[in-house]
Every structure is written in C-alpha cells, then in structure tokens.
Write a structure and sequence with these properties.
Elements (H helix, E strand, L loop, with lengths): L5 H25 L4 H23 L8 H22 L5 H8 L2 H12 L6 H21 L7 H25 L5 H21 L3 H7 L3 H29 L2 H5 L5 H11 L6 H18 L2
Helix pairs in contact: 1-4, 1-10, 1-12, 2-3, 2-8, 2-10, 3-7, 3-8, 4-7, 4-12, 5-6, 5-7, 6-13, 8-10
C-alpha cells in the first residue's frame, strides 16, 4: 500500500480529538441518565441527523449490500454505544479511552481470522503485547482481585471488537460505496430500534422533572453529532482511502485525548494504567511495523 498522503493524516488527527473527547461527554450524560438512555439518545439523535442522507443515498446500494450495512451499523455504532455507556458506570473515562486503543489489535486479529489478511509473525507479537497491556489495565481496575469492575472493562473491550469488525467489513465488503452512503445507511439500520429502546425508558419523565436533564442531553447531542455522525463518516472515508489498519490507528491518539480530559476532570490514574497503555500501543506499533 502507498504511504498515506497529508489528508488521511489530518483526518486521523481530527478523529482522535473527536473520539478522544467522546468519553468525557459520555461521562457527563451518565450523571443524569442511565446507560441505556445515554446510548439510546446518542443513536436516536445520530439516526435523525443522518436520515435525510440515508434517503438521498438509498438508491446507491443493492440488496447484497444490506447485510453488510447492518453489520457496520450495529458493530460500528449500535453495540459500542451501549457497551461503552455501561462500562463507564464503573470505570473512568480515561480508562475507557485507554481500552479503546486495543481496536487496531482486534482489527488485525479478526482480519486474519475472517477477512483474508495474510498472517505475519510481527502481528502475532503485537497482539500478544496488546493483550498483556489489557490484562494489566483490567487487573488494576479490579485492584488485582476478583471484583465486578473488571466485567465493565470487558464491556469496553467488547465495544472495541465490534469497531474492529465494522472496519474490516467496510474495507472487505463495502469498498465500492462512498463514506456518506455507508454512514447514513448504517445508522438507518439502528435508528428505529434505538428510538424504541429510548422511549421504553422513563426518559421523557426525567427530561421534564430533572433540573440538569437538558444540559446532560446537550452533552449527548454533541456526542451524537460529532462523536458518532461526523466521526463515522470521516472514519469510513479514511479506511476507504487507505485501509482498515491505518484507519484503526486513530486509537493511538484517542487515549491521549481521553486521559487529558480525565485529568482535567479530576480523575486519578495509577501508574499501572499507563504501563498497560504503553504495552498496548507498543503492540500496535509492532504490528504496524511490517
């Protein structure tokens, strides 16, 4: 593959800032709403924002594209929205951002297992380094005991695996479609279920009775418009112009932004978290060196 030009690198930086800020916005939303409401709001707002584009781009896809658009919609947005919201009820926004950095490792692993990427020894080394880093972070989350907080960290890891599935699917199966079509129709597949989930909760009651409900919804709206809609379109464009591995490199910088926001918000980080993050990023670097 040719070395990416300036534009992909610029998009990589923009995506890092947007997605790195998503965790603090999610934290603000969770101060008022529960995880299901936060995820439901995020996806519903994203769906409504993208609906005109979905209608406009509907004619560009064929029947055989729809199963892959469903995978991209749910793996790239639907399931991660719920899993990260759940995870951040017990882990900090900074730690959630750190765990998100495992996305390139999962992208490689799933790419080799299911998407025809040729095996390379350096990739295996990178995957192992990343997994050791994750073990250290989850161990510290649980304070090296068999506590329940680790399960919430695993929810964040599940979200990164879904991101990896989405990235591989876009590159392998939807490369003939433009990023706007993939993004808008992917959201279309999750929109109506998200609305049903949202309005099955007491969201409207909270909105009318909770003094800070509107400000919390404002944070979630920012998360939806920037962290979901705009970022997803940019991401699908990025991997269409480069590849799924380069696109997943955004996870190098996301944790730095997330940690920065977390520290500004008064979160404390044990040094073992940073050690785990270094191992994960070393694993990503090792895998990218070939």
């Amino acid at each position: 593959m040719e070395r990416p030009s300036f534009i992909p690198w610029l998009l990589l930086g923009v995506l890092s800032i947007i997605w790195g800020s998503s965790f603090i916005l999610m934290k603000r939303g969770l101060e008022i709403y529960d995880p299901i409401q936060v995820a439901g709001l995020r996806l519903s707002i994203s769906f409504l924002a993208m609906l005109p584009l979905a209608v406009r781009n509907w004619h560009k896809v064929t029947r055989r594209d729809w199963p892959f658009l469903v995978i991209v919609g749910w793996a790239g947005s639907g399931f991660p929205a719920f899993l990260f919201a759940l995870a951040q009820t017990r882990i900090s926004s900074a730690v959630a951002g750190m765990l998100n950095s495992l996305t390139p490792i999962f992208t490689l692993a799933l790419g080799m297992l299911f998407f025809g990427l040729a095996f390379k020894r350096a990739w295996l080394t990178g995957i192992l380094l990343g997994l050791i880093g994750v073990f250290i972070i989850i161990g510290q989350v649980n304070h090296w005991t068999f506590g329940t907080a680790g399960w919430y960290a695993l929810a964040a890891l599940g979200a990164t695996m879904f991101y990896a599935t989405s990235g591989n699917t876009v590159k392998a199966r939807l490369g003939h479609l433009d990023s706007m079509t993939i993004g808008s129709l992917g959201f279309f597949t999750v929109g109506f279920p998200a609305l049903l989930v949202l309005f099955s909760t007491d969201f409207m009651f909270q909105l009318q009775t909770e003094p800070l409900a509107w400000s919390a919804m404002g944070y979630i709206a920012l998360l939806a418009i920037f962290g979901t809609v705009i970022a997803s379109i940019l991401f699908y464009y990025l991997i269409a112009e480069t590849d799924q591995i380069f696109g997943s490199m955004v996870s190098y910088l996301i944790p730095l932004v997330a940690v920065g926001w977390g520290l500004l918000d008064g979160e404390t980080l044990h040094w073992t978290y940073l050690a785990g993050l270094v191992l994960i990023l070393a694993g990503v670097r090792t895998a990218r060196s070939t």
